[in-house]
Amino acid sequence: MNERTIRSVAVVGGGVVSLSAALAFAHALPRARVGLVETPLDPAALADLMPSTLPAIARFHARLGFDEVDLVRRGIATHRLGTSFEQWSADEDPWTHVFGDYGLPMGPIGFHDLWLRGRGANGVLPYDRYAAAAMLGNAGRFVHPEDDPRSPLSTYRYALRLDVQAYHAYLTDAAKGAGVAIAAGALGEIERREDGGIAALRLRDGRRIEADLFVDCGGPSAPLLSALDDAFEDWSAWLPADRLLIGESPSDLPPHPLDKAAAVSLGWCWSIPLSGRRAFGIAYACGQTDEARARRVLGREDCAAAGEAVSLRPGRRPRPWVRNVLAIGDSATALDPLHGTNLSLAHSAIERAIELLPGRDFHPLELAEYVRRTALETARVRDFLALHYLRSGRAEGEFWIGLSGRPLPESLARTVEQFGVRGRIAFFEEETFDKQAWVAAMIGLGQRPRHPNAMAGSVPEAAAEGGMRDLAERLAALPGQLPPYSDYLARMRRS
Amino acid sequence: LEGEGPGKQRVVILGGGTAGWMAGAALVRMLPHAADVHVVESAAIGIVGVGEATLPHLRFYVESLGVDEAEFMRATHATFKLGIDFRDFGSIGTSYLHPFGSFGSELNGVPFHQVWSRMRAEGRGEEIFAYSLCNVMAANNRFAPPSTDMRSFLSTYNYAYQFDATLFAPYLRRYSEARGARRTEGKVIGVEQHSETGDVAALRMENGERIEADLFVDCSGFRSLLLADTLKEEWEDWSHWLPCDRACALPCAPPPGPIEPYTRATAMKAGWRWRIPLQHRVGNGYVYSSSHISDDEAAAAITAAVEGAAMAEPRILRFRAGRRRRSWVRNVVAIGLASGFLEPLESTSIYLVQGAITQLIELFPQGPITNSDRDEFNRVTDYEYDRIRDFLILHYHATTRDDSSFWNHVRTMAVPDSLAEKIELWRRAGRLQKYTHGLFLEPSWIAVYIGQGIVPEAWDQRADSYEASALAGAMDRLRARIAEAVRSMPDHAGFIARRSAAIELPA
User: Fold this and answer.
1) In this predicted model, what pLDDT tens digit does every residue of B356-391 receive, in sequence order?
2) How far apart are the C-alpha atoms of B407 and B290, rounded to whole Å?
3) What is the ipTM of this complex?
4) Hey, are the CB atoms on A457 and B31 less than 8 Å from each other?
5) Which chain A residues are within 8 Å of B456, Cβ to Cβ?
6) Which of A18, A340, B59, B267 is the most core-located residue (most Cβ within 10 A)?
7) 8 A C-beta contact, residue A218 and residue A12
C-alpha cells in the first residue's frame, strides 16, 4: 500500500473554480473522499466570473470527460478565436490577437522576421491579415480546425467562452455524479493542526469538516491559506487596473468568435459576445477615476446592467501551497480579465497540483516544485498582460499617460529588450502564451525591432513579399467559403 | 552590400577543430548575407578529436546544413547510436542502457514510471528498461529510423551518430570552403585590443599578417586564447564534483561480431572507459582522475580492456571540469573547450558546441553588439552547463561502490544543492523537476536513477486507482508490441551496409 495516499480533499469556494477543483480531484483520485463546502461567491473572484478561457480548456475538459458538443448544445459554451484590440497602440490601428499561426515560416526563419523586414513595403499588409484565425474572426466566422497541415484551417486553436451560471449548474451535476459531497455553508472557525496545517473547518451551523488536503478557492481573500500565510506579492505597479465594473445584458447581435478589448482614456472596456447575451465591463484605476465616471463610459444601458464596482488587487500569493492548504484561482493569483486568463490559470493550477500531488506529510520539497512552477507560470502571464499597459504606445488619457515610463519586471524587460534588437522572443519555462502570441502582441502594440533578424537575409525580399501576397490572398478568400458563425453554431446545436 | 541594411559582419573563427568548423559551416549556411566567415587555424596545433559519440540533436545540425545523412555517415565512417550502455556504475555487475527514447506511455495522465513503481512494489513486471523500445532495439543490435508520425509507437525513440571525429572537421571544412568561408593557416602570436573599448581588434600572425574582425569566435580549445588569455574571463572550477581530469585514448580494430548501435561506458577503478563502435574501428578510452591512478596504470588498464588489436599508441589527454563564468564577453564568443569542459560521460561536448552555435546565429549582431544579446547568450549557456553538470555528477554519486578511493570519494562527496533537491524529489515519489529547454529530459533522469539503484520509495497515488491485473496486462501487451516491432527491424550493421557504408561491412 501507498502510505502517502491522500484520503480526503475538502474544497472551499463559491463558484466554478471550486467545482472544477472538486471534480478534477474526484476524477483523479477515485478512492479519495472529495467534499465541497459551497460558500457565498466573492464578487471579486474573477476566475469564477469571467466567461473567456484559453485553448487549454480542451485538455481540462477531456480529463473530466466533458464533451464540447454537449456544452455547445446546452447553450453553455461558444467558441473563441481571440481578441480584437482597439485604440491600444500609438497609431490606434486595431489588431487581432488569435490562438495560432501568423503566416507561414520559411525554413528556420520565422514569418514575423520576414514581415518585420518587409513592413512598410508596397503591398505588405498588417500582421494579422496573415493569420487565418484573425481573418475568420473579423468576418464573424468560426469553424473547427482541420487536421490536414496543408489547409489554412489547420493553423489555429480555439478556446471556449462559458455562460458562467449554466456552467456552474453543469459542473454541479457532474460533481454530484462523481461522488463529490456538496454542502452549502459559511465558514466559521478554522481548527489548526500542531504543525500549523488545518485539522478541520467549522461551518457557522456547527458542522465540522475534516480532510487531509484543503483547497482554498475562496477568492482573493484566501480564507483558508491566509490563516497560515498571508504573504502577498503586489503587482499593481505593472497592472494598473484595480477597479472593475462587470455586467451582462441581452443582445440581438449574432454570436461572434472574437472578444473585444478597447482602450479608453480612463482604462479599457471589454465586450464578450455570448449566445443571445453580451458580457461587458470596464477596468480602471480607482485612484484616478470615480465610479460614476467609469459608469458613464459604459453608456446608459450597460451602466444600468453593471453590478457594483469590484476591487481588484493584482498580484499573487508567493506560497500558494502551504502544508495541507492549497490555494487555487483568485486566492492564489489575481489578474485583471485582459486576454481571458483567469479561469484557465486556475485549471492549470489544478492540473499541476494533481500531477505533483505530494504525500500526506506535505513535505516542503514536494510543495516547492509546485510553487516553483506556479511562480514561473504566473510571472509570465503577468508579464504578458503588463506588456499591454506598460508598452502600449498609447499616450492619450489619464490612465495611460506615464505608464510607458514605469520600470518593467525583470523578465519582461528582458523580453522587450530582446524583441527590440531583432524581433526575437526570449525563452522562458512554463509560458502560457507561446512565441507567436508574444510576437503578435508586440507587433500589435507597435513594438518594432532595430534590426532585422540576420537569418532573414537568406530569403530575398521579392520572394518574401510574393509569399506574403499569395498567403494574404488565400486567407482573404477564406471567410467567403465558410458559413457565418451563427449558422455554424445553429447547425452544431441541431446535429 | 545589398544597398540598404547593415553590411556583413566580419567573423573570425579562431581554431579549426570540431567546434571551429561546426561554427564555420553553420554560419556560411545560415547567414550567407550577414556574416563573412574566416577560419584561422594552425596545423601545428593538434585537435582533441576524441568526441566520437554524439546526441540526437546533431541530426538537426546535419539536416540544417542541407547535407544528405547517408553521405555524411559515409564520410565520417559513422554508425547509429541509440543510447549509452552503462556498466558497473551503480554497483559492480549491474548495467543499464540510457536510451534516446521513453519508457512506456502515460495512463490517463499518470506517467508510466509511476505505474511501474507501484507494480514493482507488488513484485510484478520487469525492469523498466524492458518497456523501452529503444532499449530492446539496442539489446538486439537492431536499427531502423524512427517514424516521423508523432502519434506512432515507432516515434518513441531517437538516435544519434558515433563517428570518426578526425574526419568530421575536415568534412565540414570542405563544406564551408565550398560556400565561401576563408581559411588562413598559421600561428597566432599576438592579440590586439582596442585601447578604449577593450574589444579584440585583430590577431597578429607569425608571418606578420594582421587579421581584423568585428566578431571573434574563440574555438581555440583548452587554451582559450581570446576569452581566457586575452580577456581574462574567470574560471569556475567543478573538479571537486567531477574529479576525472585525464583520458587515455586507444582505438582498436573492430572485434568480430555485430556493430553495436550504442556506446558503452564501463566504470573503472578510478573513472570509466568508453567504447564506441564505428564502421572501421572501435574508439576506446579511459577517463580517470590523476590523483587516484597514474598515467601508466591507466594506459595499462585500457590496453588490457580493449577487444581488438590496438591501432595507435595510447594517447593521454589532460583537462579539467569547469567553465569560464561567461562565454560571450565583449566581441568574443567562446565555443567548445575554450568556454568550458564537461567530461564525455554523456557525450555532451558536441552538443554544447552546437547549442552555442544555434544561440550565436539567433543572436547574431546586425550592428553594435548589445549587452542584452550577450546576457541572453550567457544565460542560456549557464543553464545548459548547470543541468549537464548535475546530470553527470549523478552518475558518480548514485552508487554503492566502495572498492576504490575514487568511488569512495564520489559516493560520499557533497553534491550541488540543485542536484540534492532533484534526487530527494525523485526518491520520495518519483517526481522529476520539470524543464523543457535544454538537455536531458525526464526519461534520461529516470534511466540513470533507476539504472543506478535510486528507486522511489513511493509513487503517484493515482497509480493505485487501477486493478493490478489490468495494469499487468497492459504492461505485458506493451512488451509484446515492442518485441514484435524489434523483430521486424533490420540488423544495425546490415542497415548501414545498405545505406551509408564507407567500407565493406560484414553482413
Assistant:
1) 999 999 999 998 999 999 999 999 999 899 999 999
2) 14
3) 0.94
4) yes
5) none
6) A18
7) yes
